[in-house]
Each structure stands twice: as C-alpha cells, then as structure tokens.
Amino acid sequence: MIPARLALVLLALAAAAAAQDVPPAAVSVPAAADGARAAQERLRDAFRRAWNAVAAGEPLPADVAVLRDYALWPYLEAAQLQRRLARTAARDAALEQSVQAFLEAQAGATAARGVRRERLLYFGRTSAWRELLAAADGSLEPVLQCYVLQARVATGAKDARDTVYAAWISLASPPLQCRAPFAWVDVRERLADEDIVRAARFAARNGSPLPRTVALLPPAERALALFEQRLFDDPRRALARTLAGENLVARESLTAPPGDAIAGALLEAFDRVARRDSFAAAPLYQALHARPGFSPTQRAQLERSHALGLAYDHGAESLELFERLPPDALDAVAHEWRLRMALWYGQWKRARHWLAAMPQVQQQEPRWRYWRARTAEQLGDVDGARSQYEDVAQEREFYGFLAAERAGHAPKLRPQALPVDPAAEAAIAALPAMIRARELVLCGLPEPAAHEWRDALAGLDAERRAQAVRVAEDWGWYDLPIKQLSELQRWDDLWLRFPLPYADAVAQAARDSGVPADWLYTVMRTETLYNPRAESPVGALGLMQLRPLTARRVARSARLPTPSRADLLEPATNLRLGARYLAQLHQRFGARWIFTLAAFNAGPERLAEWRAPLPLPADIWVEAIPYTETRGYVQRALSSWVMTRWRLHGEPGRLLPLLPVLAPPGEDGAP
Questions:
Q1: Which of 256, 255, 196, 208 is nearest to 232 (CA)?
Q2: Confidence grade of residue 156 (pLDDT, cut at 50, 70, 90)
Q3: Which end of the chain is more exposed for a tag (fewer CB within 10 A), N or C?
Q4: Rg (CA), the chain
Q5: What is the pLDDT of residues 208-229, one digit of tens each?
Q6: Quick check: pTM over 0.70?
Q7: How far apart are CA 402 and CA 659, in angstroms?
Q8: DSSP H helical segments within 291-397, as ranges?
Q9: How far is CA 506 from CA 190, 444, 488, 524, in A?
Q10: Where are the alpha helices (DSSP H) in 27-159?
C-alpha cells in the first residue's frame, strides 16, 4: 500500500505548495500527509452530518457545499431523492424529472441503485403501471414483484395470468401488494381444477388462506383441501383428532378423496410433529403405524420421520427404527443421524457398519473420515486409526485439527502469505469504485461499500481480486474481503483471514470480563467476520451480535450505562458487553467452551434439552447437537480459535483439552 499512500501524500503536497506558491520540496512530507488526512476526515465528518440530516428529514448543514467534489456526493444526492420518492403519495412530474436526470447522469453507477429501487416503489404506489414495467428489470424483492404483477394485470399483459399464478403458488408470505393480483387470478375462468388444487395445497402448507375457488371444486377435492388446511394449521392436534375418528371437516365427506392423497398429507403432517417434539409424536406414530392403507414405501417414510425426530431428541428408540429402515429409505440426513445415535450410545460396531453403508461421496467428507478413524481406534485397530487420522489431519478445519491431535502432533496450519504486489495494490486502490468503497466504509456505510467493491472487482482477474483484500484490510474492512478469499479458494494466508482488529477494545474487554482475547476474537469472527455494523434478521447487533434486551440485562448486572442501538454498533461497547455475557455463560456452564459457544448461539435454555448419557466424549456431544446451525457454529468457532491462538501466541490452539469426557447432567456445568 506504500505507493498508493505516497501518491496521496504527493498530491496533497503539490496542492499545498501551489496554494502557498512554495516549491514542493520546501514542504514537509509528514506535515503534508497529516494535512491531507485531516482535510479528508473533515470531508467525511461533513458527509456524515449531511447524511444524518437527510435521514432525519432536516435541512442540510450550511457547509454542504464543500462536498460537491467529494467522492460520495452522488450518494448524498441519491439519499435526498430516495427520501422524496418514499414520502410522495401522488404523481409528481418535477420529482420524476429530477430522478430521471440523476439516473441518466449516474447511469450504471452504484449510487443510483437505491434511487432505481425507490422509483419502482413510487411507480407502484402511484399506479404508474406502464412506467413501472418499462423501468423494472432483473430480480425483484417481493413488494416490487407484487407491484409488477399489478402492472401486468392493469395493462392487460398477455402473460398476466401465468405470471400471477406462478407467484401465487411460490410466495409463502406474500406482502399486501399481492392481494389484488392474487384475487384477480382466483376465479373460475382463469383456473382449471388442477390449478385450484395445487394452489390449495401450497396455501395449506404455508398457512395462507385457501383460494376462494376451492368452493367450486368437486366434493372430493374440496373436502381434501379443507382437510389439509386444518391438518397443517395444527398438525399435532389435527392428527390426534383424525386418528381418533373425528371428522374435522364439517358437512364434508372424507370418504371420497383419493387414499394416496390423504395418506401423503398424514405422513407430511406427522413429519412436522416429529421434527418438533418426538415425545408428542410417539402416540401418533403408534396410531399411524396400526392404520391400514399405507404402502411399504409410505410405511418406511413414517418410520424414517419418527426415527429422525427421536434422534434429534437423542432418543435411544431411534436406533432400532434406523436398523429396520430399508436402504432406499435412507437419504444423507438419515445416514448422518443414525450414525450420530450409534456414537451417542457408544455402539461402535454399529457405527462401523453404518459408516460403511454411507454413500461413497458422503464417506469422503472430513467429518466421516474422522469418525471412521475414531471408530477404528475404539474397536482396537490402533495402527489403522493412526493412518486414518494422519489422512484427515491434512485438512485445515475442525476435524483435521482433531485428527492431528489424536495422531499425536499439533494441527497442521501451513500458512502462506499472498504475494505482495505494491504496484497492483496501488492500481486497485486508485480505481474510482474502490475510492468510493473506501470512503463508504470509513463513513460507516458498509452495504453500498459492498456494491462498489463488487463493481470495482468485476473486471479484475483472480490475482488482482486477491490483492484487493490487502487494500480493504488497510481500511479496517474485513468481512467482505475475507469472503472474497473464500470465493477465490485462497485459504492459505491466515494473516489476512484471521486479522486482529480492535486490539485496544479487545484488551480492555478481556481485562474487564476475564474472557481471554483469543475467545473474543473467535466469537467476533464466527459471528460477523469482524463487522461492527452487522445486524441479523432477528435484531442482533454489532461485532458479537448482541440482542438489545440481552445487552441491557448484561449492562444492568455490571452497573454499566444502558446501551442504545447506536451504542451496540460501536466496537468498544459491543465488545465490553459481549465479553461480559460470554463470561456469564462460561461460569453458568462449568467453564466448558463447547457449552458456552452453543449457549451463545442457540440460547442457554436449549442446553438443558441436550443432556448426555454417561460417559460421553465431548466430540460426540458436539457432533450430535440437534440444531444444524449451532453444531456448525460450535465447530467453526473451535476451528477459528485454533488459528486465532496461532495469530496471537505463535502456536495453534489444542482442541482435545477442550473436549474431555463430559460429567453427568447437572454436575460440573454439564447441561
């Protein structure tokens, strides 16, 4: 990055010299550099103030004119236009002309994206259907998709019926804007019986109202549609009533619908119950199993659903059900969970048999190669196990690290830095889109920065895209660049993939909470890839993804100020509260990091449901975490910790000390 920085310094130097009529050599380079940085930061401050004013609907600051030549000026123009469009309920010719002029001036520019989207919403809201169809292109979010459907109907488009119907049977939670086109298509002249049945099946399974045209179906199909609606609205209750012989559909006969359709619906509803609560599913399974009329394939489907539901709850009964399943009833999920249950209950011979029965592609995954080695070791094949461990140890991930330690040596990291190419870095940093991306990052606007980043890299080859990661790290931007390395499959530069940002804030949070810095970095990376402004769909915020309620509770217990939403987007505050929350969980769950991580991701109340028989090795407990997301989270975090320890201390972390044989439930913090 030195050449790029030097270029900025020299430009500032020349500008300062020209302004004072002083030869460039007479100006101190450090002084000029400091002056350039200060001037640029003043522009950013002015931009932030103007941006916040637009967002709040306030007049622009008096000094906004200084931004006219700033790289982000188009974003400020765009923000003003977007706000005007969003607040306009009727057609406004002057506004439309201003928007059109901006879009023409910024044709293809990333800054115009938000304006294009808001103009489409404006056209939809004001029923400007022809203008909407002319401007809409590419994939659209659901609200805009529904406006386009309205436009097709209103303009009499030839494909209106087919387009509206396709959306009707694919949008599980359609926005209000779809009501009108869906009502338009829901009439007899536009739907055949099979269309109505298909739409009714989709609605029943997604909790939507049934089509009005269901009333026009023949009695058998109408009865089936009503039956399925009640069945999927409350599967457990409806199945119990159906199996008890109650007629759920008032004044409709259930004797007419085809048996296969009824059987399929019953099995689908049972699968939903089994996945949520295997205890509640058990009596339903017994009643369904005793019911005549199921084909052998359907009976296998019933047993598979029950076995999986029991396995998710670590039920021992799942083992015999899995044993009875015919091979063609086993998919990848069933293969995985029957093996997990064999491991959970220490049935190593059965585990060896079920490992061998897995499809070859599945067997080659590092996960199952590791468990093949563990199984061989448990069954006395020490030499075979060691050879297999050494094979898996070549993988730089969770199972590879475990295998290396079981083979008797440290994990193999094999770090290799990407080649340094200062000229390439300088050229990339000078791209207009990269300049804008940098300013957006430094002004706290990562989403448009990501668009600029992608635009800047679109025309570059793989080598230069990799070099761009160095450029972005210099800005203090990590999440998207790290993803870029993954997309390029450049896994070896562990310095770039595992940076150590926010060092002062991390050190302070570690001192305050007692949580080591390596674990703070681990959670930070696993949660957000070091993104301080990350926000999850459920409202978790900041580096460590704290929910506001959790953050307030932690602050209250620590006698700290109540954090606002903005506070949680500040690294120091987020780390301070996140570290204390980690410390609370760690103490609650017996200082076992596998429990702490699982509780941090899934919530502490879930761990009580994941009790283990005894004795149980902790690697098996992690393997059998019922939530796929949490299982992956814990494994990724442990893998990241190994490499973060190497970054901080020069030696990779060792996982086996973190994965002992677990104590009984309720003892030593075990869930």
A1: 208
A2: very high
A3: N
A4: 30
A5: 999 999 999 999 899 999 999 9
A6: yes
A7: 10
A8: 296-312, 317-324, 332-344, 348-357, 360-363, 366-378, 382-392
A9: 63, 20, 30, 10
A10: 29-56, 73-86, 93-105, 113-125, 129-135, 142-154
